[in-house]
Each structure stands twice: as C-alpha cells, then as structure tokens.
Amino acid sequence: MLCSDLNWLPTSLFKGITYPKVVFEEDEQQDYGGYYEHGSGILTIVSSDTDASTIAHELAHYIQDIESRVGPGSCWEVQGTYEDSINQYFWSQPTEMEALLFEFKYANNWLNDWWLRKLVLNQ
Predict the structure, then answer these.
(1) For 70-96, what is the mean pLDDT?
(2) How far apart are CA 43 and CA 65, in angstroms?
(3) From CA 93, how far away is CA 105, in angstroms rounded?
(4) CA of 108: how far to CAs of 15, 67, 101, in Å?
(5) pTM to 2 decimals?
(6) Across the beta sheet with 42-46, what order do the strands follow?
C-alpha cells in the first residue's frame, strides 16, 4: 500500500494540529525507510517502502515535535549483536520507543510486530 496521504488514520490524531506533508524520495538503497526532520512539517518516505508503518512511525515524530516532546537523539550504532543494539536503542530512546508503539498500533504488520516482540521486548 503506497500512501501519499494520511486519510487512512483516525482524524482524532490530528485534532488541533495541521496535517504534515508526505513526500516520497527515490529509492537509492538507503539504510532507512523514511524520516521526519523536526520543524519541517514534512514526512519523507522512501518510495520503495510501500508499507504504511513507516508513515505512521514518522507521523509519531511529527506529533512529538508539535507537542514539544522531542528529546535529545542519539546516533544509531551497532554494539554487540544487531539484536542487542536494537533493544538498547529503543529502550534508551523514549521518542523512538513511542514511535514504534504508535506504528504498531496504527499500522500493524509482521515486521513491526517482530521488531517489537523479538528485538525490543525479547519475547
């Protein structure tokens, strides 16, 4: 599902805020599926990432920004195993954990289910 807008999400999420713009970037084998640059009002999604979960994840960061809940970030780096690094990253970055849970709630799929259960919660 390639979503160029946010109409599939509950309108209650946007109460009192402006819808962000969603733009698609060409796939150049990036190591990310999308991003939100704080203050921009733009969700950038890699065009090959056809799942709504990336849009939901980046929308969570947009809402955090609007609500002034953006904390200091940290660069992603692998320390130990990839799985341990993912676990450490999400538990040490509350805004990323919130975005993962938001994505899981509004655009649940096998991948975010696996990330949350296997890599973050160790289930």
Answers:
(1) 80
(2) 12
(3) 19
(4) 22, 24, 9
(5) 0.86
(6) 21-25, 42-46, 34-36
